[in-house]
Design goal:
heterodimer; A: alpha+beta; Butyryl-Coa Dehydrogenase, subunit A, domain 1; Butyryl-CoA Dehydrogenase, subunit A, domain 2; Butyryl-CoA Dehydrogenase, subunit A, domain 3; four-stranded mixed β-sheet; four-stranded antiparallel β-sheet; 12 helices; 41% helix; B: alpha+beta; 3 domains; globular
Chain lengths: 402, 370
Amino acid sequence: MDFNDTAQEAAFRTEVQTWLTANIPSEAELQDLDYIQRAKLWQKRKYEAGWACIRWPKAHGGRDASAIEQVIFNQEEAKFDTPDGIFSIGQGMCAPTMMTWATDDQNERFMPPLASGEEVWCQLFSEPAGGSDLAALRTKAVKDGDDWVVNGQKIWTSGAHYSDYGVLVLRTDPDLPKHQGLTYFFLDMKSPGIDIKPIRQISGGANFNEVYFNDVRIPDAQRLGAVGQGWQVALTTLMNERASIGGGGGGVNFNSVFELAQTVDLGDRPAIEDPSVRRKLADWYVQESGLKFTGYRSMTALSKGEIPGPENSIGKLVGAPKQQDMASFALDLLDQAGIIWDEAHSANAGLFQATYMASPGLRIAGGTDEIMANIIAERVLGMPQDIRVDKGIPFSEVPTAS
Amino acid sequence: MNFEFSDEQNMLREQAQTFLRAECPPQAVRQVLDGDAPFDRGLWQKVVEMGWTATAIPEAYDGLGLSYLELSVIAEELGRALAPIPFSSSVYLATEAILMAGSEAQKTAWLPKLASGAVIGCLAAAETSGQPTAGKLTVQFENGKLTGSKRPVADGDVADLAVVVAASADGPVLCLTDLNQAGVARSGIKTLDPSRSHAEIRFDQAEAEVLGGLGEGWHLLQALYDRAAVLFAWEQVGGSETALEMAKEYSLGRFAFGRPIATYQAIKHKLAQAYVKNTLARGNCYYGAWALSTDAEDLPIAAASARVSATQAYYYASKENIQTHGGMGFTWEFDCQFPYRRSKLLAVNIGSEAIWQEKLIAAIEAQRAA
């Protein structure tokens, strides 16, 4: 066992480091840009030098890199404070789906500008009545000539307001059982009849949207997979939710709470001297290190050209509640001042308050804690699925609240 | 990055699993639990013949000269099988103490016998209830003789050799003492896990020799615990997986309200949590094994991380295994009791969770101060 790169990996890491060091945007370059412009500037620069979406085929704008090379690039890029975030859904989830299901001509047209950041993609899956039970979605598509006409509503669509294209699953036959009546498409987000409304979150941000469809037309040529095959295509997207291998993880962590405990008092002494504080910190430390070394095991598999085992499925289920608990604990350590959320007056410029308010979303987005536990029980431990009372009956006859 | 066991080490694991499935089924644990024999002598003899007691002992002392990665593999498998033998006491504690602090003469005298199984070793540290400190030691070492009483000593009734933590005029000291001598009296004590025997050992002017330096005993004991903690943690992870596996199997076959209880989220989520805890503990154990096998400066942090997470994982999996079994899990007839008992034995044997949580934070502070 060792933590070292192979000679080939070390050479690649050096190449990445050298390029990053020379090309990271300067403060001056970024200062007058908003976060979307910043992200696009950086993405374009990577693309032009051949460092964007490096796992992708060269023909689609990538580099034909290996999985371990992608991990190495991510690790090195994470050492810098680079603008990112707006491309992860498009490049990480929409693109693999397109590459699996779209025509060569379509991929030739759409993949390079997605890699370069000129076009941003979003994913329109969830609906008011279809969250954890995604396949219960109701937004309807009806065939009309060479088009489909779409009516209904999507929700929790990250980045819909700045996206150029989106992928979506629609109900094309409500008289078939739930999973069978779905069909998958991609569409132009500037199509007439689309109305995007931001959702204000409890954390103060508004990155999610409601997206309303009022007689929106999608050409049949933009259907991915057969009519009725939408669930199968959707699984391609869902399986590509970005693996959290090797990532640093921002927000509240052991270091920030440990350092807080050194600076605030509990009674007449620093909180870090209190045994109950030390025990809690120890528990969080071993969770973080357990995740870290589990990630190293997965990296080892990638390095050998193998597919990692199911261990990484625990990442979100451990990480999200931990952030919430640690933020809550930090606020308690601050005592009455914990309530102050003002960058100028809060410890760590409000990091603990911000994480306290953002972490409930982390426990829900991309699969709730409960869904993640189901996934581990079913796909890792091999336990049976829950009994489904809507199984085998036409979707139109499934009981609903409304 | 190569953070995985080698092909040879994985082959050793497969051999160990095959061997233990045949030689140490749950019935073997039950026989020791129910019977009068303090441990499974037949199994112990075969384990010795496999060379497992010699794993990390250098070839110069008749050992196999393998690394702590191999010993980690064996520890996990013995933990998985809940083997009722004095392996942890003899190998992770007594052998390690001599390897770490022994003089050349002591190594030559004892390591070949520990390797061959001719001698079983143990560690006699505890005296009273509550967390031990150097200042509370009552067993005295004076003029080459030990006096006083130790309890509980894991495997103390079957061991031939003890590493004893004692007070002396120069401060705490580790001593080596032959337990087969006139100045030693031993009596078995009842414990929570009768599948591993324990004793009270009374020393009355028993002959002993210093292991390591006079006055260094407490420091050496902590260093020994750091090394042993990694191996204990691997046993704990192995046992924890057994508990999870038992619970899963039972849930698949047990029907309630017309369906297997494995279809209920209350059961699925409980077992998913057990998987999460086991996986975190395993990750930390990998780090511990690496640190132990490379003598890394990080060993105190790595050992404590492995120990804390493995202790928590085993407790959770073993208690929720009983819960998943319902009333049957509470019966003597079922095997759910084995991991539940063993999890607590292993949890307290080299210091409880709270001690290791404190050690972890103290080690992190020391590292940051450096």
